[in-house]
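Before any further analysis, backbone shapes were mapped to integers, which produced the following:

***
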Amino acid sequence: MKSYNIYLLRNMPCEGNLEGRYIGRTESPLAESSIGELLKLKRTYEYPKAEAFYASPSTRCVDTLKLLYPWAEPEVILEMAECDFGEWENKTAEELQNEPGFSQWLESGGQTAPPQGESSPVFVQRVCAGFEMLVQNLMARGKTTAVLVTHAGILTTLLAAYGLPRAKPLDWMCAPGCGYAVRITPGLWMRSAVMEVTGQIPQGEGSEHPDHLVIDLAREAADKAYGD
């Protein structure tokens, strides 16, 4: 049975990220240090080949993808955009500490929305709808391999929502320029909307996070589902 392999990659930090700003819809270029770090990763490790390329509309995601795959013409998925921080866009926590509702927003884990911004439940619904559209698009085109470069929060949301094994969003956190390979089997996807996490990207890349524990569980789940 045909399966689809999607490589989920986290974008490299932009200047605003490094300054500790809430950068959602604000355009901020990749930091010079980020470009150097990503090119070093590319020289040292192997990134997977793919037939289709997708990215968040943010310049930092498109530029991350183009540094890894210079020939690619990525399709921008609007629903893969970072959370909209509304009136708090491009500001630091220090600048917002006296803003009404900011501390409550932090304590709620984003369940409330910033002024003119987006709450966590709305964000999750949007991201999941966008990913399901991406999967449908991939299947309709008959492409079996794809790269998606997006933001950390989107990547962890997708893996927590659809990934096997089941894990919390923070368990899926990875370093910039890194990510996970997932495999979608049409029958299982149509029936249960789940995808198997099969490995880390780039190949051989070590991580400070305990991601390998999650991947070991994924392999164990795959063995049970598909056999050795």
